[in-house]
Amino acid sequence: MSRIAALMAFSLSVLGMLATTGHAEVQILQPLTSARTSPSDCWGCCCGTSSLSMNPSSISINTCTYQGGYCMGDKHQAAWIYQVPDLAEGESIDAMVFTGNRSGGYGSGAIYMRWVPTGSLTATSVNDTISNADAVMYINWPGSYTYTYNVPLSVYANASGGYLMVVAAISNTYSMNLVNSGTSGARIVMHVDQQCRGDYDGDGTVDVDDLLSLIGVFGEEDPDHDLTGDNEITVDDILLLLGGYGGCA
């Protein structure tokens, strides 16, 4: 049996196994860590951020209040860090949504988002996110049980993975409670666009013509056909192409 015939037979057997499997495009990101912020207990410091209560099951947030120059109520905010997984070559983030469940107070507020270098959540990183946000969403928290906000494109347009911090605030003095555990907790729903990896002829479909094109350079160094990034065409490249076999929406 020739090399091409053997590779075709192998490829057809793999396609038979892949026929019953799907490729997920939606990923739900739960927070890596979370916190409720509080100000310091010094006189007149009720609006700052200096301490954190880590990973509570719910996060109560509200704004600060003064009366006669005295602090009558501290400000509390919610903060999360999400680890966005590294994307495979050819993938891109098509959309992000920040969503979860809430109760209690509602009204105007803000959501701050910033890419951060580590998964460490500190009072300093919260303040940095607020003052140097990659995006700020001025919102109205709903009276309904569920909130959903589209993340601005500027946050993820060129993202390939990393740590994303989200800080949520409300202008209401009455506390709003954000669910922070389980499937209804604050989470990011991410849609990943899986592009046509292996569509060498550009017809929008990974098909037998593309498979033959790849097999034709099997064992060679060919950056135009390389799918794994090692600059050599191997069985791994064939498996990647077969994983995306079919039409590309």
Write the layout of secondary structure elements.
Layout: H1 3-18, E1 26-29, E2 33-38, E3 51-54, E4 58-61, E5 65-67, E6 70-73, E7 78-84, E8 91-104, E9 107-116, H2 123-131, E10 135-141, E11 146-150, H3 153-156, E12 162-170, E13 176-179, E14 187-194, E15 205-206, H4 208-215, H5 235-243, E16 246-247
Antiparallel strand pairs: 1-14, 2-3, 2-7, 4-13, 5-6, 7-12, 8-11, 8-13, 8-14, 9-10, 9-12, 15-16
Helix pairs in contact: 1-5, 4-5
Summarize the structure.
The protein is of the alpha+beta class and 249 residues long. It is 18% helix and 37% strand.
Total DSSP helices: 5
Radius of gyration: 24 Å
Q: How far do the termini sit from each other?
A: 36 Å
As for the number of domains, it is 2
Strand content: 35-45%
User: In one word, what is the shape?
Assistant: elongated
Structural class: alpha+beta
Quaternary state reads: single chain
| Total beta strands | 16
What level of helicity do the residues show? 10-25%
Which key features would you list for this structure?
249 residues; alpha+beta; Type 1 dockerin domain; six-stranded antiparallel sheet; 5 helices; 37% strand
